[in-house]
Amino acid sequence: MTDDPLFIVLLVAVFAVLIILMIGLGGFAGGGAFNKKNSNRLMRYRIVAQFVAVLLILGFVWLRGGSF
User: Fold this and answer.
1) Contact at 8 Å (CB) between 13 and 49?
2) Which chain regions cross the lipid bilayer (predicted)?
3) Cβ–Cβ < 8 Å for 20, 46
4) Cα(40)–Cα(57) distance, integer angstroms
5) 19 inside domain
6) Domains in the chain, number
7) Could you read off the pLDDT of 7-40 as tens digits, one per residue?
């Protein structure tokens, strides 16, 4: 499965969501100017990245003949 290009793209999307989430949580925990300036933007990016990741997961399952 790791040699499947769609699976690799799926993993990249999931890790992108994780990285965006960790940056957002780190900024929230630290507070200050970074949090005030970027918190809403980072969470919007996370929502979009999650949407793309979920679509890729569903597409991967559908294309590989799995069942939901």
Assistant:
1) yes
2) 6-33, 45-63
3) yes
4) 26
5) yes
6) 1
7) 999 999 999 999 999 998 888 888 888 888 888 9
Residue 64 DSSP code: T
CA 1 to chain centre: 20
Q: What is the DSSP string of 14-31?
A: HHHHHHHHHHHHHHHHH-
Rg (CA), the chain: 15
Identity of residue 1 = M
> Maximum CA pair distance of the chain?
48
What is the distance between the alpha carbons of residues 57 and 7, in angstroms, rounded to a whole number?
Answer: 9
The token duo for 17 is 């969501």
Residue 66 is assigned to a structural domain of this protein: no
| Model pTM score | 0.81
On whether residue 15 sits in a domain, the answer given is: yes
